Amino acid sequence: MSIKQARIEGGKAFRNQWGPTLLAILLASAGLIVASAAVPVIGTYIVSGPITVGLYYVLYKGLHGEKIEYKEMLYGFKTNFGEIVLGVLIKEAFFVGIAFAAWGLISTLGLGFSFIPIVSVIIIALIVIAAIVALIIFSLYLAAVEYILMREPDAKGWEAVKKSKRIMTGNIGRYFGFVISFIGWFILTGIFFPLAIYTFPYFYMSKICFLGSIYDEAERRAKEPVYTAPPAPQAPLATGEMAPQDEAAPKAPAKFCKHCGNPLPEEALFCSNCGRSQAPEGMTPAPEIQTEADAFKEETKAAAAENAEEIKEAAEEVKEAATDAADAVSEEIKTEE
After folding, report:
1. Which of 57, 103, 164, 287 sits in a 20 to 30 Å window from 71, CA-based?
2. How confident is the model at residue 233 (pLDDT cuts 50, 70, 90)?
């Protein structure tokens, strides 16, 4: 599904249920605020996963034309709560780790290069840029973690993280383009905040639609049979050329005619030279085979006899021609005398 199609489908779905969609987003935001106020930092990380999964669940149902019911916002708490929390914590751990690494480098280099302000500023700026780029890349690869946990109630947290990376590989550019396509709406919302009641329902419903298309495409490809290419056809053998043999296979011993010593194929029953049978002693070849062999022998003898007769006739002709030539020479000699 293209970015444009996802926005069209998401916009159509949220307009049909604009009020319920907006209220679901407000309830999810309120839940995060309350959890953060009750248990700072830790509370946010613990409940953010189940709340987000619950929000995705009701939006997913709304996207497919079902009525949004607010009690289903608790879906993430009632279904696989522990694995949802674990999956989101693993996802957030990447972001926190990158942020702390960047902060540590900035603090260390800021103190070490305090006597060279320009160098310190340049190095710190590069670290900040690298950290921002890393955070963006990781956020794109792990963007589908909550969606996967919503679609697969029995999924393990770590499996959801790995699957998100797998299905987003090759799609992070498209997903980044999808997010950027809403940048105009976000800027307008920052200028005129009441516009948020339209921007955020529109964005979240389109996001569910876009992630769903990536997920469904990955599932379809995973179920396709793996194609195995057939072996390449071998070129036809030239006349007299033997097919290649397996080097490991033992070579058959040569066979020779028992009567004249002519080399023969292993399966030969008669010699192609003398025509005599190659059957073991005491065994008689089948009548039709014997008949063919006898016919071959007769044809060979007839051809030899015919050739001998032709040779004899040619010799007589040469002899007569030589005699005539000698007589002619003798007559010429006598005439001259």
Report:
1. 164
2. low
How many angstroms separate the CA atoms of 278 and 154, rounded? 75
**336/333 Cα distance (integer angstroms):** 5
Q: How far apart (Å, rounded) are the C-alpha atoms in residues 50 and 84?
A: 6
Can you give the pLDDT at residue 253? 44
Distance CA 133, CA 70 (A): 37
Report the distance separating Cα 198 and Cα 88, nearest Å: 27
Of the listed ranges 8-12, 104-108, 241-245, the one predicted with least confidence: 241-245
Neighbours of 174 (CB within 10 A): 17
In degrees to the nearest 10, what's the CA dihedral of 196, 45, 37, 68? Answer: 50
> Mean pLDDT over residues 2-22, rounded?
82
Sign of CA dihedral 242, 244, 249, 250: positive
Ordered DSSP codes for 91-152 = HHHHHHHHHHHHHHHHHHHHHHTTT-HHHHHHHHHHHHHHHHHHHHHHHHHTTTHHHHHHH-
What is the band of 294 on the pLDDT scale with cuts at 50, 70, 90? low
What CA dihedral angle connects 122, 127, 132 and 136, to 10 degrees? 130
pLDDT average, residue stretch 161-168: 86
User: Any idea what the Cα angle at residue 280 is, between residues 274 and 285, rounded to 5°?
Assistant: 70
